[in-house]
Amino acid sequence: MHSRKTGTRSPLAQRDRRQRVEKDAEFGAEATSGGPGVRRQIILPLDWFPLNKPSAGDYFHMAYNIITPLLLLKLIERSPKTLPNSVIYVSIITFVMGASIHLVGDSVNHRLIFSGYQLHLSVRDNPIMQNLTPPTLVDSFELLYYYDEYLGHSMWYIPFFLILFIYFTGCFSKIRAESRMPLSAWTLLAPSSLYYWYLVTEGQIFIIFIFTFFAMLAIIMHQKRKGLHLDSNGLFLLYSFSATLIFIAAWIVWLWNDQILRKKYPGVIYIPEPWAFYTLHINSLH
C-alpha cells in the first residue's frame, strides 16, 4: 500500500502537493502571528492592549475627538465671519458623532486584520467572511463598514471642512503686506498637506475636499473685486489644499495600473486608500 501511494504519483502531482503544503504552512504561520505583516503594524507590545480592549491608537482617537472640536471652536471664534451659534454647535455635535462612529468601526476593522481580513478586498469578498456561519453575519459586517466608511466619514468631514471654509472667508485684508507667510508657516506646509492628503485618500472624501477647494477659489475671486487680499492664514490654507491636490494626483498616477485596487475602486473617481495599499503590497513583502 505504501509503494502504491507514493510510487504512482507523477512529478507534476508531487510538485502541486508540495506547493499546497507550503501554502498551508504559510497560512498557518500568518494565522498564529495575527495575519500577514501584523507585527509591523503595532509598535507597542500586543500584551499591553488585548484585542478585546482599546489600543493605543484608539485612545489617541478619543483624544482627537475631544481636542479637535475645541480647536475648531477656537478657530471659528477668531474669524470675523461666522455662522449663527446654533449652526456652529450642530456642526460640532455632528463632527463628534461622526468621528466617534468612525472610532468604533475603525477599531473593529483593524482587529479583523489579525484574523486575516484584507483591506484591499470588499467585505463580502474577504476569505474570512466567506467562512462565517451563519452567512447572515456578513450583512452585519457590511453594516459596520457602512457606518464607518460612509455615514461616519460624512458626519465627520462635512462639518470639519465647513468650519475651515467659514474660517477661510474671514482671512482677507486690504493691507497687502499681510499677504506674506512667515518662515514658520512654510516649514509646516508639507506636514499640513500630507495630513489633508491622508484625510482625503483614507477617508474617501475627494468630492467634499474638491468642493471646498473650488468654493475657496470662488471666494478669492469675489473678494479680489473688492480690493481684498488673503492674509497669511488664508494663504497657508490655500497652499496646503493646493499641495494636497498635487499629492493626490501623484498617488493616483502611481497606482493607476493596479488592477486589484481598480477592482475595489471601480468608480469614476479612482483614489485608493493607503491602508488598502498597505495590506495589498507592503504586507506581501513580509
TrEMBL record:
Region span, Disordered: 1-35
One GO term (biological process): lysosome organization
Name of the protein in question: Ceroid-lipofuscinosis neuronal protein 6 homolog isoform X2
Record's compositionally biased regions (Basic and acidic residues): 14-26
InterPro entries: CLN6 (IPR029255)
Membrane-crossing residue ranges in chain numbering: 88-105, 150-169, 205-222, 234-256
Keywords: Membrane, Transmembrane, Transmembrane helix
Gene: cln6.S
Superkingdom per UniProt: Eukaryota
UniProt GO cellular component terms: endoplasmic reticulum; membrane
